[in-house]
Structure formats: C-alpha cells, structure tokens
Design goal:
This protein has 197 residues and is mainly alpha-helical. Helix content is 59%, strand content 0%. The structure holds iron/sulfur cluster (SF4).
C-alpha cells in the first residue's frame, strides 16, 4: 500500500484510511473545490499531522481551489494560511492537529455548507446511517452497532467501532498501534495505514 501522503496519493489514502470526519472533508473539498475556514483548519492540520509536506499541501489545495478561482486569487487568499499552519509564517508551531474532543465540542457545521466537525456527533441518525451505507462500512449488523453507540452519545466509541469493522484482527497484527483510535483522527489514520502496509 501507499504510505506517503501527497497530492497524488491523498485520494486513495482518504478512501482507504481516513476516519469519517476527514473523509467528509475530503469529499467536500472535491465537491466544492474549496473549504471554509474551520474546515481548512481541521483538514489542513490533520494532513500536516499525517505527514503531508507544505509543498504537497499547497499543491493539493491549489489543484482543487483553482477549479473555481485563479491561481493568483489562491495565492493571495489561501497560501499564507497554509504556510502558517506549517509554521512558516507568524508564530511558529502554534497549530497542532485537533483531537476528537476538540472537534466534537467545537462549533457545529452549518449542514450542507460547512464540512468540518465529527459526523458521529453532528449528523442526525438518518444522515449518519445513510452515509455508513453509502460507504459500505461493514454489514447491516455492524452498521447497527455503530449507530447504537451514536444514539447513546458515545461518538468516539462509534468511531472506534468503525475502525474495528474496517480492520479485522488489527489488534493481533504486529506494528499496528491502536492507541488513540477513537481519540484522535491522526491515530486512526496512522493505525489504518500501518494495517494496510
Ligand atoms: Fe473524526 Fe474523532 Fe469523530 Fe472519529 S470520533 S469521526 S476521528 S472527530
């Protein structure tokens, strides 16, 4: 499998190894060819934490954003904040990727327009259930187990269950570190990538 997160590999790695929140941000970016402020931070910092370089991050966002704006506009309005996220502008190193608590307790997204947040927390039951089905996450009873956690308000357990369903026997594989799955999107991602390698 692929390991290094670049503009060229991000599509495949989003499908293979991103938790639901980041899959939705990726899909939103591809659909709208831009992301709003909160989404750029949540997704951008995740990508940085997952090892995407400043150059690849800029390349990836430039490729999407310039479907609906000029390169000049992108450079003026967005590239500074990307450099900033990577500690190249302003106060260095001030941005760390968000953990699940921060995302779950943060401002809820304006649905249909904003793509940040945690789907387990911020989607209603019908939307979440439809999404799990669309993404073919597990079978009907596995999806119901995820939904049961959501209905109980155990959003992070729902997310950990999603991981478990998509990565059978992960706990018995050498080199797969499950610490933090359900607590941090970057832990979910790196555990999944190492599972697939
Ligand atoms: Fe993302 Fe965490 Fe929500 Fe999972 S529980 S979807 S990793 S914010």
């Amino acid at each position: 499998g692929q390991e290094v997160l670049t503009a060229a590999t991000v599509d495949a790695l989003a499908a293979q190894s991103m938790p639901l929140c980041m899959k939705q941000l990726h899909k939103g970016l591809q659909r709208d060819h831009k992301l709003k402020h909160m989404a750029r931070l949540q997704y951008g910092l995740f990508l940085k934490g997952a090892g995407m370089s400043l150059e690849e991050h800029t390349l990836f966002f430039h490729k999407e954003f310039t479907r609906i704006m000029t390169s000049d506009q992108f450079n003026k309005e967005y590239s500074y904040s990307i450099r900033h996220m990577h500690g190249k502008e302003g106060k260095r190193g001030s941005y760390t990727p968000y953990n699940c608590m921060k995302i779950i307790l943060g401002n809820p997204p304006n649905s249909g327009v904003e793509h940040h947040g945690c789907p387990y927390k911020h989607y209603d039951d019908a939307n979440l259930s439809a999404l799990l089905g669309q993404l073919k996450i597990g079978n009907a009873s596995e999806r119901e187990a995820i939904m049961a956690h959501k209905r109980d308000g155990n959003f992070q357990l729902a997310c950990a269950k999603h991981f478990e369903v998509m990565h059978p026997a992960a706990a018995s594989l050498e080199g797969v570190n499950l610490d933090g799955v359900g607590n941090h999107p970057n832990a979910w991602f790196s555990a999944s990538v190492s599972y697939h390698n």
